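One such given next:
>
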Amino acid sequence: MVDPNGNESSATYFILIGLPGLEEAQFWLAFPLCSLYLIAVLGNLTIIYIVRTEHSLHEPMYVFLCMLSGLDILISTSSMPKMMAIFWFNSTTIQFDACLLQMFAIHSLSGMESTVLLAMAFDRYVAICHPLRHATVLTLPRVMKIGIAAVVRGTALMAPLPIFIKRLPFCHSNILSHSYCLHQDVMKLACADIRVNIIYGLIVIISAIGLDSLLISLSYLLILKTVLGLTREAQAKAFGTCVSHVCAVFIFYVPFIGLSMVHRFGKRHDSFLPIIMANTYLLVPPVLNPIVYGVKTKEIRQRILRLFHVTTHTSDP
């Protein structure tokens, strides 16, 4: 921003614009978004409760699922309350430090979720390609250490972020193009050289999202190679244990990559689609992951039905 003397100054607050062009409708659009947020929180809490209370589910795959659910709750909660305040109460102002905290939370939690998805792919690889070693390789203490490593990694990757943002002077505008703070959005408002921030962002994306997605793809190529050598019945069982995770991977990476492409190659506010993408992509994985695992994973589905006292009839003797 610019002070009265025309000098560059540091921003003390930013303006979050919500849904540009839909100011009249965003009050009503907030209701379905809030409903999706509540579904996400309740769905993921249900997954965590079921895994925690069912001793038979204290296995690596379900412990990683608990981690994923916890991260989904935190990611959606880091953005949705402020988004609802914008849509319902026109509370568009966010202080610089609060914006910085929200930015750090969103990016670091996303990095942690990517690490957990990679760990889940490794779990499926060991379970299918080396089943006799699965119990010794992925013990519960080791799974917990992987969870801690995911937190440390996500935090460490984002540790320089506050430094790189605070060093920037801001001028001309303090209006952000989303309903929450993102590094890509904030740095564009700076009236200084942002090459360091761009390079830092690329390093984080390549070393986290890029590396993780590459290793996940490699895991499934090895899994596919092993599965093709099994009998049809064994193939169906192996694929069945992987479907939910594959869906979770696509649910996480496709919106993330899509929004990144919009930021790097799209024009600011050039169409309605990027605006909707930006305001919903943090809700997509938290809403869909519990549904996917609840529908596709037999053990989770049975316990959800039991939790809500729904009786099912099977053909088993």
User: Anything to note?
Assistant: Confidence is low (pLDDT under 50) at residues 1-8, 311-317.
